[in-house]
Structure formats: C-alpha cells, structure tokens
Predict the 3D structure of the following.
Amino acid sequence: MLPWRYLVPVRAERGVRLRLALESLGPVFIKFGQVLSTRRDLLPLDIADELKYLQDRVPAFPSRQAVSIVEKALGQSVEKLFAEFDAKPLASASVAQVHTATLYSGEKAVVKVIRPGIEKTIKKDMALLYTFAYLLQALWSEGKRLHPMEVVSEYEQSLEDELDLRKEAANASQLRRNFLDSEILYIPEIYWDYTRQNVLVMERISGIPVADIEELESQNVNMKLLAERGVEVFFTQVFRDSFFHADMHPGNIFVAHNSAEQPKYIAVDFGIIGSLTLEDQSYLARNLLAFFTRDYRQVAQLHIDSGWVPAQTNVTAFETAIRSVCEPIFEKPLKDISFGQVLLGLFQTARRFNMEVQPQLVLLQKTLLNIEGLGRQLYPELDLWQTGKPFLEAWMKERVGPKAAVKTIIAQAPDWIEKLPQLPQLAYDVLQQSKLQNSLSYQLVEQQQERELQLNKAKRKKYLLAAVLLVSAAWFGSEPARLLLQEIQWQGWLLGLAALYVVSR
C-alpha cells in the first residue's frame, strides 16, 4: 500500500477523519470505534453518529486453520465430529468467524471459531490504545472529563470476554432459560459437548433479518406488534431478569418465519451481556417515572441516594441543571420522546456533577437506543412511553410496598425455619459475648482510672515540689537571707528556674 493511501482530506468533517483513521488501523481499533459510538455521554454527537458507520469486516482466515482449531479443541477430526462441515465461512469478523455444520444427531448447527493469533494482535493494539488514552488525558484539558483510561479498560475487558467463547455460551444458556416458554423471543440452544474456550457450537436458526423491512412487509408481519414486542423484550430482560442482551443491533436480531400475526424475535451473538443490581433496577425505574412526571427534585435526589453522584452534591443545583436539560424534551408529544435520549441527557448532566462511570448503565443506555431506533424503524408511530410504562409500574408494585414485603418474608421463611433451632445457642453466644465485652470494658475502665489516679498523684507531688522551690527562692531573695549569706541572690534565681522546669514537665 502506498503511504498516501491513508491520507484523509483535511476538509473532511472531524468524525469522518476519525472513522477513516480507525478503519486504517485495523479491526481492534474498528471495534473500539464501535464501542465509542455508544458513549454519547462522552463524545460529541457528530463524532458518535459517524462512528456508527464503522463495520467490523475482515477477510476470512483459511478454512484449513479453522478445521485445525476445531479438531485440536475437540480432540477428533471434523469428519467424526460432524455429519457435515462447510469449510466456506458463513461470516467473518475481527475476533472470530462462523461455519455451518450438521451434527450426527441431525441438528443443524453453526460453529464459531476464534481467529488464530488474535490474542497477540489485541495485546499490541491495546498497548497503543492505552498510550493514546494517557496522552489524551495528560495533554488535553477535556481529557480527564472523558475518562479515556477507564473507557479503554472497559473495552479491554469486553475483548477478553469475547476471546472465551464459554462465557458467550453461558450467556446464551441463561437467556434461553429466561425465555424458554416465551412467545416473543427465541434463543438458540448451545451444544455444550462441542463447546470450548475457542470453539462454540450452537443451534442454527432461520429467520428474516429485522432490518429487512421490505421482506417483513411482504410477509404481512404485524409491524406495530413487532415493534411493541421489542420494547417488551427489553423491559422484561432488564426488570424481570436483570440480565439483558447488550448487543441488540439489527445484525443480531431476526424475526421467525411463519409468525406474521404474532411475530417472534430470534437473537444471536451473546458476547456482551448487561446486568443490574436490585438497587440499580429500583433507582432506574423510579428515575424514569419521576422524569416523566417532571419531578426533577426526585430525579436529583435518586442520583445522589444511589451513589451515582457524590453525596455532597448540591441537590438544588443538580435539580436546576436537570430541569434545564429535560424541560425542552417535553415540548414534544410523549410518543416522540426518546427514552435513550432521556438517559443520555441525564448522564451528560450528571457528568458535570462528577458522576462516576457506571458500565452497567452505559450498556443499558446503548441497548435502549438500539431497541428504540429499531422499534421506530419498524413502526414510526411507536409510543415507547405508553409501551414501557406498564412494565415499570408493575415492577414497582411487585418490588415496593406491602405485597413485596410479604413476598420477601415468604421467600426468606425457609432460611428462618432452618435457623430456628440454632436461635437458643446463638442467643446464648451473644449474651456470653456481651458479658465478655462488658468484663473487658470494666477492666479497661479500671485500668484507665488507675492510670489517672497515678497521674494525679504525680501532678500533686510535682506542684508541691514546685511550691517548695518557689518559697525557697523567695526566701533566698529576702533581706534576712541576703544579710545571712552576704551573696548575690543567685540561689533564688536558680530555685525559681527549677520550679518552672518542674511545672512545665
């Protein structure tokens, strides 16, 4: 390649220049750019929008290498492992490529194989990324606010997860269990007997790509219901399961054939998964409900109570900042308001008040933007708020209030019953511990009192000695003493200084 092949026209927009530069640096940088495109809380919107066009496409590695990796990982030849194995890749990306196969039991499968030598490439490129991040943080005034070292560290962790296909397989298995009897989402089965760290074998699915609007319409798919079910899938994963597919872009989502009136999604690629704690779920639900009722004070207080922003944050100032960002949003009809943009606005505002990076919330916002964009592409009139509000309210009723308390008691009752026979011994141990602590406390008090008594005695002796010395000094300075000793009163001065020394100790 000639060196000027990589030159970018200086008049190009900054986002375009950055995208072209990342493309020229290779797949690890391309994937990093894709990650950055989701960090709209950090990047200017024009750059984030341009980075969305990055495509993780690299030439396939030779099929004989793929076969060799599979055979080494599974300990048998592909002829013994599979009834059929297509050496021609179905798809190829920076970290892995996919082949189709058929098991001897008859199941159609896909075989995902980690690209050989990718670990060394990632290690080298990550060192360069860390250098860029350090320079950005050190040399640019806005660098610290963007937290470049943290962003690169998060990306490195996601790459490490992608290199272990057992993690992706485990994610898929968990999601499959969560939606096993679902009428709205299907997750392919993992074939664990054929899955290793660098090889994953799973059920091959057949469906219509969700971005193929023309094909969906030709199949008379109920587009309104399809869009609403996408929102339902998201809220079910986030609030019911606290385990959500965090890479739900159109390339990873299909619509099952023969489900036009009751459309059903099929998801693939489970390398990136998000999860929320119960506390995060609660704060998120209450934040969204408070936002849509315009209770900005509550939104500000919830951010502080959750620990997302420092406890010493001025609530009134934070409330004012949130209001200034969010009020313009309500000039639109509710159906036109973007949940993702709401979260983005809140995160950007909270950043100014030193909000720490919350990786789980970043994944959530990215996923919500994907679902929202997809839903409105399928059905432009989709009212995300009306679709999502019942899930939030139902979750709040289930988790907060008397019913939730009763459920908690019922759920914990077996543990309490199991511990019931141990209560007398536990009570006795607590009492004994209390007695021991009281005894130790009494001994410590006695020792302290004894020390204070000795100190007081020493002080009294010291002051008595000082008094004697001062009286003696006064006597040496008196007229009778001078007549008696016929000397200069140096003895008086000496005794006076001695008295001062004794008192000062």
Observations:
- The two ends are 85 Å apart (CA to CA).
- Residues 1-6, 479-488 have pLDDT under 50 and may be disordered.
- Residues 58-204 form one domain.
